[in-house]
Design a protein that fits this description.
Helix content: 25-40%
Distance between the termini: 57 Å
Strand content: 15-25%
Radius of gyration: 30 Å
CATH class of the largest domain: Alpha Beta
Structural class: alpha+beta
Length: about 650
RNA sequence: GGCGGUGUAGCUCAGGUGGUAGAGCAGCGGACUCAUAAGCCGCGGGCCGGGGGUUCGAGACCCUCCACCGCCA
């Protein structure tokens, strides 16, 4: 009986635009699933969509269609992206599936029958615009903390789950199962959260307020709280989407991958729900970090959401998968920058890995008539053994790292072998051996070692970069099924018989021109067409194509520049600072806030002519006092000693807009 | 405000149980030519956030201060 491995992603909100965050979790889950399959486990990999709730109901109403139709229209965005990303999910659940809804009702009924659900009056401050409740503490002077509109006190009869009953049991479980919540920092947060008394959980909404949901079996005037509905997906899917013949059961899940924002929901709500239903808890909840984009938080309003499709189109699925898992340790937050992407693509994928494959296959072609020769053990050296050793143990190393969710370390180990192989080539210099017929045996040994190294590399890469692994196998002339063969069946070093000719093929990761602009994340177009070879003008050939000649001023990197936060600001008021000829005190609107900025522009501008102008300011400059007046930023202006003119933008942009 | 974390080379970060600082990237130099002008070799002296303490000896242990971050309120 194979080991059962059940991995899940959260179910994504169908109304969202799929972005790098969705892709990240799903790719990570895919790697775990693919690795487990190679290990021989019976695998169930589940992802899907959360389709109920207020936002969907509203969006559908706005579009003038019924919510289900709306969901049906949105669903392909996700499914298509998973296909592009080569995601190998075994199940794709939608919370509007009829079976899921039935199971959610079963769960509710079970808890109700056990006396774990009760009805109570809930009173809170309700914001009609946001359609949500706030607590007394949230409300700011009678206004909604979110939209600043007046809130009203509203009472509602709702159903509550006796979550508080399970507080001690949950604390106990977390303490006795250190691996339950990972990484440790998140585990500590949950432990901290549970130090305070746990309340009961409202699990219903009146239909009068929200109708797009699953009806409570014991009260048709209410629907289930969306989180209750959503969390149950992890067990409901198993009952109608999993038809694995080998595994009797996939529950409890091996791992739920979640973003750090929904950790509490999973660690506390979901755990206590399961306890209420007397079902075992998942073995592990792993909360990964968030991505910023070019140093900024991703948000729709900023318009800086990375569209995975655009990246895939430019660099390929595997490069995208590689970057996300290589760049940042899984539990930590990371920054997605085009510069970093380029750097890794160029250095690690094109130069190191791609070129290793390329030069190896070329030599097998040139020096061995497109075949993998037999080695002569007599000619083996210490380095040969080292390469053999590292290669043979690579997969085990990867498994160790992935067991701890250290994707970046696993990929680091793979690149370590790539480097070792490149060193091996330089040290053994097959092109020199090829010139000397007396050393033919040694040449054969070297080429054989390189072929074997590539064979193991491709196997190790399979979970991370399936297309690349397959391409490597094909070029080496391996039979197609070897990339899906189980670890236990995989031919050990030296035991594989190479029967087919090898072929070099085109570059696995063709070098890319670096786009001229660093800011735009969506369209890294292949500019400039003038120079096909980006290094053509460089002398050393190693200098970064980004480096441009300047005067003596030291160059700074994109990271340093990105530390400076520039924003558009509209001048609301301006007045002279007393006793100063050039300082003006400005009150500016920066979108979300108003600030006072003191600027030395009084010789050029009169205060009254500035009001209403939109300018560029440094938003994250440390406040300072100029002639006793606090300045919370700095305006940008042109000119050396004498200020010649303020910076503005050709377009009329709203205050608060980011400038890059 | 409570709890937790972080602060190490220009950048990103490693540095179980204390013994006198490392990697990758960037930069500089070199030899080579199989290869996607790729790769390989050599070159890093940075008050290890500040101050105090324990110790023969602390980046690592203790105290304190500062800065930043997370969770909760």
């Amino acid at each position: 009986m194979p080991n059962a491995f059940y991995v899940t992603t959260p179910i994504y909100y169908v109304n969202d635009v799929p972005h790098i965050g969705h892709a990240y979790t799903t790719i990570a889950a895919d790697v775990l699933a693919r690795l487990a399959r190679l290990r021989g486990d019976a695998v169930f990999f589940l992802t899907g969509l959360d389709e109920h709730g207020q936002k969907v109901q509203q969006a559908a109403a706005k579009a003038g269609i019924d919510p289900q139709t709306h969901c049906d229209q949105l669903m392909p965005k996700f499914k298509d992206l998973w296909e592009k990303l080569n995601i190998s999910q075994d199940g794709f659940i939608r919370t509007t599936d009829a079976q899921h809804q039935t199971i959610v009702q079963h769960c509710l009924q079970t808890l109700y029958d056990k006396g774990l659900i009760y009805q109570a009056e809930y009173t809170g401050w309700y914001c009609t615009f946001d359609e949500r409740f706030w607590t007394e503490k949230d409300v700011l002077e009678g206004l909604c903390p979110d939209c600043r509109r007046p809130v009203e006190q509203v009472s509602e009869r709702n159903y509550f789950f006796r979550m508080s009953q399970f507080q001690d049991q949950l604390k106990e479980h977390i303490h006795t199962h250190p691996e339950f919540i990972q990484p440790d920092s998140r585990r500590n947060e949950v432990i901290g959260f549970l130090q305070k008394p746990l309340g009961d959980l409202s699990i219903s909404r009146p239909k009068s307020r929200l109708s797009w949901g699953i009806e409570l079996p014991f009260d048709r005037d209410c629907v289930a709280y969306v989180w209750f509905d959503a969390l149950v997906n992890y067990i409901s899917a198993l009952e109608y989407l999993s038809a694995h013949p080998d595994a009797p059961t996939f529950w409890p899940a091996s791992v739920h991958l979640v973003g750090k924002d929904i950790l509490t929901t999973h660690a506390v709500y979901w755990s206590t729900m399961l306890m209420g239903m007397e079902r075992p808890l998942p073995q592990c909840l792993f909360a990964h970090g968030w991505w910023t984009v070019e140093g900024e938080k991703m948000s729709k309003s900023r318009g800086n959401v990375v569209d995975p499709s655009a990246m895939i189109e430019e660099f390929g699925t595997d490069a995208f998968r590689y970057f996300l898992l290589r760049e940042v340790p899984f539990g930590q937050d990371g920054n997605f920058s085009l510069a970093a992407f380029h750097s890794r693509y160029q250095a690690e994928l094109a130069n190191d890995l791609g070129n290793l494959v390329s030069r190896t296959l070329a030599m097998l072609g040139n020096f061995s008539q497109h075949t993998v020769p037999h080695p002569d053990p007599q000619t083996e050296t210490e380095f040969d053994h080292q390469l053999q050793q590292t290669t043979s143990t690579l997969f085990g190393t990867i498994e160790e790292h992935l067991h701890r969710f250290e994707f970046h370390r696993a990929l680091e180990a793979i690149m370590g072998l790539v480097q070792l192989a490149n060193q091996y080539i330089d040290k053994t210099a097959p092109w020199i051996l090829a010139k000397d017929p007396a050393r033919a045996a040694r040449l054969q040994t070297v080429l054989f070692h390189l072929a074997e190294t590539l064979r193991f590399l491709s196997y190790a890469l399979t979970p991370f970069m399936p297309h690349t692994a397959e391409a490597m196998n094909r070029r080496l002339g391996l039979t197609a099924d070897i990339s899906t063969s189980l670890l236990s069946n995989y031919p050990p070093w030296g035991t594989y018989t190479y029967n087919n000719p090898v072929s070099k093929g085109t570059a696995l990761f063709p070098k890319k021109d670096i786009p001229a602009t660093q800011g735009s994340q969506t369209t890294p177009t292949s500019s400039p067409p003038a120079s096909k070879n980006p290094q053509a003008l460089g002398s050393s050939g190693k200098s970064s194509p980004l480096a441009i000649p300047t005067d003596d001023t030291p160059q700074i990197g994109i990271d340093e520049f990105m530390k400076v936060q520039l924003k558009m600001a509209k001048i609301l008021e301006a007045e002279r600072v007393p006793k100063s000829s050039k300082l003006l005190k400005l009150q500016v609107d920066m979108g979300t806030q108003q600030r006072q900025i003191v600027a030395g522009i009084g010789k050029k501008y009169a205060p009254e002519e500035l009001v209403g102008k939109t300018i560029v300011v440094v938003a994250n400059l440390k406040p300072a006092k100029l002639m006793g007046v606090e300045s919370q930023g700095m305006v940008l202006a042109a000119g050396e000693k004498d200020m010649l003119g303020l910076l503005g933008v050709a377009e009329d942009l709203p205050p608060g807009t980011t400038v890059k």
